[in-house]
């Protein structure tokens, strides 16, 4: 079985092996027990798995949560019946980290006239990783499938881009680098600056830098394109403009406005489909200058609401334990923060979690607890009196308070 770090896995034997068994043991190695059970009880040993495992009493399957690379091993299930020998099954589990994001590194070996000798590299510290390089015409020969690639660029045989794909048994990532004639590096779109904007509003994207500004007087044509990912080799044209001669072939896609005076692109009433990587090319007689920007759009968050997920009443001391969920009806990529009125931060089960665990007593009757929901473009807060939930029906759900 092959799994990615952080995922869950179920180790299960055939039903035939488990028929009429009376005792079973799961082993992490040949001598380290994880869990043992019989018809009367189930016992978990004090190992690194103790809070990450669950046994299915019916099938004998072992569920392991949040697996780590160190969990890779040959697991053994050993079962027995009365008056019979033990039987066992072995299951090999291999856990791998997912391939990380990476950027192709370039090194100019030498440049002779219009010929460039370059070294491209995309190595990551993962011995299980495999590498495939792609050019304009598809994958390069298998003998070139390694972390480094030496390329010779000439005006006759130059590939417009090279893509490195890195894969391991659980994931795959790639990066693409572009070349402009004669020996200009167009760069990776993963290095584009990011513009964060609110969904639904008009957006103005700057498409310029110092180098682009210097090239304006020499340029003949402007081309603006969009792609949905930095790896896309096909881009959709948004705008084209001839600077020397305003002809009928100039084009602006509906919903966009181009401002030549400051080289910016206006988007009217932004929608999710407007997200992506925008690139602008300034074309001269023999050179092309490029600039890119990534647009991310986020929906504004709504006012938070809460719901009681679990309530435990302790009659002997008058306390009440609550599990509270804070949610919003609108907003994406939302992070949550809990605090007590007065500014005290309250820890949640995980950073930015919408859940809160609290044990309250009568002394907390007048306390208000604040849930703040936020994303990169907005933030909303709401205060709640949670003691009132200790004596009411938790199924009632939302409980707005005094904010």
UniProtKB/TrEMBL annotation:
Ig-like domain segment(s): 100-178, 304-385
PROSITE patterns assigned to the protein according to its UniProt record, in alphabetical order: IG_LIKE
Record's protein name: Signaling lymphocytic activation molecule
UniProt keyword annotations, A-Z: Glycoprotein, Membrane, Signal
Stored InterPro entries: CD2/SLAM_rcpt (IPR015631), Ig-like_dom (IPR007110), Ig-like_dom_sf (IPR036179), Ig-like_fold (IPR013783), Sig_lymph_act_molc_N (IPR010407)
Compartments (UniProt record): Membrane
Domain of life from the UniProt record: Eukaryota
UniProt keyword Zinc present: no
Glycoprotein listed as a keyword: yes
PANTHER family: CD48 ANTIGEN, SIGNALING LYMPHOCYTIC ACTIVATION MOLECULE
A GO MF term: signaling receptor activity
């Amino acid at each position: 079985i092959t799994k990615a770090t952080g995922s869950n896995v179920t180790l299960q034997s055939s039903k035939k092996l488990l028929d009429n068994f009376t005792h079973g043991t799961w082993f992490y190695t040949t001598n380290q027990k994880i869990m043992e059970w019989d018809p009367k009880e189930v016992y978990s040993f004090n190992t690194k798995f103790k809070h990450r495992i669950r046994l299915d009493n019916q099938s004998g399957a072992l569920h392991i949560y949040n697996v780590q690379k160190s969990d890779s091993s040959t697991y053994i299930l050993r079962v027995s019946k009365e008056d019979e020998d033990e039987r066992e099954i072995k299951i090999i589990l291999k856990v791998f980290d997912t391939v990380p994001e990476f950027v192709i590194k370039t090194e100019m070996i030498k440049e002779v006239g219009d010929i460039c000798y370059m070294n491209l590299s995309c190595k990551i510290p993962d011995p299980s990783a495999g590498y495939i390089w792609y050019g304009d015409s598809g994958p390069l020969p298998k003998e070139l499938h390694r972390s480094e690639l030496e390329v010779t660029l000439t005006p006759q045989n130059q590939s417009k881009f090279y893509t490195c794909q890195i894969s391991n048994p659980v994931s795959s990532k790639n990066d693409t680098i572009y070349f402009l004639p004669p020996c200009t590096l167009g760069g990776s779109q993963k290095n584009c600056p990011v513009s964060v904007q609110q969904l639904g509003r008009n957006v103005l994207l700057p498409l310029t830098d110092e180098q682009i500004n210097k090239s304006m007087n020499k340029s003949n044509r402007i081309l603006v394109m969009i792609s949905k990912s930095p790896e896309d080799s096909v881009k959709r044209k948004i705008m084209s403009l001839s600077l020397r001669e305003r002809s009928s072939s100039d084009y602006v896609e509906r919903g966009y406005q181009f401002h030549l005076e400051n080289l910016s692109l206006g988007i009217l009433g932004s929608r999710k489909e407007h997200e992506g990587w925008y690139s602008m090319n300034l074309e001269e007689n023999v050179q092309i200058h490029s600039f890119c920007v990534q647009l991310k759009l986020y929906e504004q968050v709504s006012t938070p609401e809460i719901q009681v997920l679990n309530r435990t009443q302790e009659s002997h001391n008058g306390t009440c334990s609550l599990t509270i969920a804070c949610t919003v009806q609108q907003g994406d990529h939302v992070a949550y923060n809990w605090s007590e009125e007065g500014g005290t931060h309250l820890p949640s089960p995980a950073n930015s979690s919408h859940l809160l665990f609290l044990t309250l007593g009568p002394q907390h009757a007048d306390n208000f607890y604040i849930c703040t929901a936020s994303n990169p473009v907005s933030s909303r807060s709401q205060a709640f009196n949670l003691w009132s939930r200790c004596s009411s029906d938790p199924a009632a759900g939302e409980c707005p308070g005094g904010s």
